[in-house]
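User: I'm designing a mutation panel for Si:ch73-91k6.2 and want to avoid disrupting the core. Could you give me a predicted structure to guide residue selection? Please restate the sequence first so the numbering is unambiguous.

Assistant: Good idea. Sequence first, for numbering, then the predicted structure tokens:
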Amino acid sequence: MRFRLHKKNLLALLGVSFVVVTLLVSTRVLLVSDNDVIQGNPAVRPGDTVKFVFGSPAELARSVYNANYKQCVLNVDKFPGEPQLVLVVQVHNRPEYLRLLIRSLEKAAEVHSFLLIFSHDYFSEEINAIVQRITFCKVLQIYFPFSIQLYPAEFPGQDPQDCHRDMSKDSALKARCLNAEHPDSYGHYREAFITQTKHHWWWKLHFVWERVQAMQGYSGFVIFLEEDNYILPDFFHFYKSMIGFRKSSCPDCDMLALGNHNGLADFTKVSNKVLTAGWMSTKHNIGMAISREVYYKLMGCNVEFCTYDDYNWDWTLQHLSGGCISKPLKVLVAQGSRVLHTGDCGLHQKDKCRPEWASQKVEEGLQTARDSLFPPSLVLNGAEAVEHKAHMKNGGWGDVRDHSLCKNYAKL
């Protein structure tokens, strides 16, 4: 079931926290039971899928909760055994870029040993069909249960009674809009489509490590990708090389970055080179690999992550590194990027998206890079200072409802 609230009266009487608690309780009931997570769900058979009902938001929400409860892993009969690598892809609504990513995965060496987890915050028949046609490895789809698609006219979507982004606080207080008391650091009020990505990222981090049954017992790193990424054929080979290098030469490296934002420029010169550095959002947020140990460090900063006034998950993570996490996060970085960024549009740029151009550019780059793939060993090519990098927060995350909902993901 999905509770609907008369929010203006409720907020006046009981405050913001009850809205968040109600959302969480309704989701908890439909999402999962603790016994099923620990023991596995005997009602789910290999190859089962959840039929989505793309009707009203309430019907769609029930499909989402049912899918997150059943956790049907596709192709499990074809690829038995524990995964050698887990990749988690955050998916919104760019199906053409998603197809590019899947094509690159299909060409990756040893992909049959992967578990691909697709985490969705937009739900459509087209996107589900794209993912469910994958046959080359095990696949699990999880669904962000607080998507604005499920709450189109209420928090965590955009409530008609919310303050407009650019209202002054004085005007907002006079208008008595719902969040008048809580603009961000720059005087702006929340926009649901802006806040969703950070919510989804934090929920996904917790759900993957704590709730995904197929992850129970997995001791490796989880690599986080986005729908507009593209991986190179030697992705898994390079990951294993980085794991070995970390063990022998950088045991204090907290994270791995298999990608960078240089594309295939000078790839032949740096294909086998790595460097160490302090984690920075603008450099190390692509192909990021996190261990369970680092996950626990991050969750220890749950309150700080969820209340820091920046709508970007990666800038927020940089704020934690060397702050709430006292020792700055150290990352081992691939200089020859094994993850490319193909997207030429995104959160702030909706026009002129040309995935076919991205595909052509990648294919042309791979022709020159092909002979430099699968290097036999890695070479350390630099060691940058590992220190806290302060930055100007971007705002967009001042609403206490966002803070409360975000903090409670860890309690689901």
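For picking mutation sites, this is relevant: Residues 192-210 form the longest helix (19 residues). DSSP finds 15 helices and twelve strands in the chain.
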